[in-house]
Design goal:
two-stranded antiparallel sheet, globular, alpha+beta, 8-stranded antiparallel beta sheet, Creatine Kinase, Chain A, domain 2, homodimer, 46% helix, 15% strand, 10 strands, 2 domains
Chain lengths: 349, 349
């Protein structure tokens, strides 16, 4: 498998098949791990980084789950590849900007990925479509066990897993759920919901990761604390919180449908009409319209397109994806035209 | 034929079949005539008005062209009927607001119509699709001759046909051409064109008649003077002027297509997409979008709909038409929904 093999496929997490996928796009678990007795990447020298890379690569090859993964050195990637992997949610901006000794690995359907020598020696990520944290955790736990057979992880009996940043110490776990909350946004309840989430010490982020705005009405909810609780407790807490947010979104959708069905239907159908007909379209407008169409599918207004196609478009309309698909560098103007034609093509099917 | 028979048909002038119909919607000739020795309608008493009505009705029945026309007394029409006939360009607002002794007559396909006892005893109108003033004049001239065999028209050897307002005296003729000039509007040349028209003593009006704004980029050009020239000269003058405006619009369309093809295509296709998908739409937005689609048909961007369907929609999306089609009174909100569904239905065909 090469990077270009990803172009015409998207990850399992976009399939729209998991539980509650009318509201939850995906569930994700990230684990921070470090190799015992080797300085954290920010302090490590090239020899250390290379040693970590070699041992992780070797552990991947010995893993049942991971053995068919692609392992790519950052230094072997061009800028478009890096941007492409960031857009794909497989790699962070910081990691893309790094170099010698740093690498990225990912499995088929992008269910699992590992950033090697990012902030920690290993940042392992597992993703599943829909509201599926415990299934995701099962996968992650298996991988963690497999890897730990071949890598001696830095672990302290009092503190748990040691990490570069103390906020990740303990379990090293972060669970995130990506929610689509258009009705809470439209009914102007979203700020209250986000405030409540913050008070409960959970974090909310935008679709494109840490520090990004909530676009397309997507919000990622994740835990902030990974110390002092078991993995299961941490995930149970997020799970309970997400369940409440789902209920609130469902109520808001009902309210919209009861109070303002015609207006909502109009907004959804117009969004669909513009997406299927535009010849020039920005990513911001696209994401706003896709969000309405996604809501339209759940509310039964739109019947001839499935959630997967819409989920995938959120990823494919990004600049590096458009250029990979076109097979050449595109200016911003050219991307707006390519984006429109890609959308038309995908929605005509 | 009854008024309700008109609902599912539209006039010949909307067929989009005449010459230059990519730019010219229709050609229209109006003739003002009065019955000799009877006071003009504003001065006439009920007996006079009734006598005029009787003699015009009798003349219509004896006419070869007009004998199958519908003749309707204003007092027999309800408000919806009146509004419907105004929307249809068959009757003026003033005429609809009148009463006893006043009437309206129109022939099959609405090629000919007569307002009886409006400002003049007879206001005869002939309409044809496309740029077709001389064909329209032929029809009008025949009717004028037929009617004058049975009605003694007020005529003065020095002044010609006498009319209630002196601006119509002489030939009593007004020729109008309805032009669709989206490219002159988009390239911001329209004001210069309209100023030139005014300097040449021609009038320009909007789609919905005298005193109305130019909506949907439609402009009606007509003569102001009807005295001192023959009918043929008057029509030749309008004809020459319209020919120039058509050329300017064609050049502007070329300019847009050369300089800004992608942007134009996007605008046209989005308009089409919104029309085919909206569930609530105002008449103003509809007319703006229909205008773009009409341009899209001429420029080859839109291929699966014909000019006639678009022309007809300009008429059918008006309030009285929507209510006639629905068969009941509709609130403004209900009309916006009915308008959207009518458009979707018509464009799906």
């Amino acid at each position: 498998m090469r990077i270009d093999d990803l172009i015409n496929n998207t990850g399992e997490w976009l399939k729209g098949t998991g539980p509650q996928s009318h509201i939850v796009m995906s569930s994700r678990i990230r684990l921070a791990r470090n190799v015992s007795k080797v300085p954290f990447p920010s302090r490590a020298n090239k020899k250390d980084l290379t040693a970590v890379y070699d041992s992780v690569k070797s552990a991947i090859e010995k893993s049942g789950y991971l053995k068919d993964s692609v392992v790519l050195r950052i230094n072997d990637l061009d800028n478009l590849d890096k941007q492409f992997l960031i857009e794909r949610h497989l790699m962070s901006h910081d990691h893309a900007a790094s170099g010698e000794g740093r690498a990225i690995a990912f499995s088929k359907e992008e269910i699992l990925s590992i950033m090697i020598n990012e902030e920690d020696h290993l940042r392992v990520q597992a993703m599943q479509s829909g509201f599926n944290l415990f299934e995701t955790w099962k996968i992650m736990d298996t991988i963690d066990n497999e890897l730990s057979k071949n890598i001696n992880f830095a672990y302290d009996d009092q503190w748990g897993y040691l990490t570069a940043c103390p906020t990740n110490t303990g379990t090293g776990i972060r669970g995130s759920v990506m929610l689509h909350l258009p009705a809470l946004v439209m009914t102007k309840q979203i700020n209250k919901v986000l405030e409540a989430i913050a008070k409960l010490s959970f974090a909310s982020r935008g679709f494109y990761g840490e520090g990004t705005q909530a676009i397309g009405n997507f919000f990622q909810i994740s835990n902030q604390v990974s110390l002092g609780h078991s993995e299961e407790d941490i995930l149970q807490n997020i799970n309970g919180l997400v369940r409440q947010v789902i209920e609130q979104e469902e109520q808001a959708r009902q309210t919209l449908l009861v109070q303002n069905k015609a207006v909502l239907e109009d907004k959804i159908c117009r969004s669909y009409g513009v997406l299927r007909n535009a010849h020039i379209i920005s990513s911001q407008e696209t994401v706003d319209l896709l969000s309405m169409v996604r809501l339209g599918i759940d509310s039964g207004v739109i019947k001839d397109v499935d959630t997967q196609a819409i989920n995938e478009l959120f990823i494919m309309i990004q600049p590096a994806h458009l250029q990979k698909i076109e097979g050449k560098k595109l200016s911003a103007t050219e991307r707006d035209a390519k984006r429109a034609s890609l959308i038309r093509e995908k929605l005509e099917k």
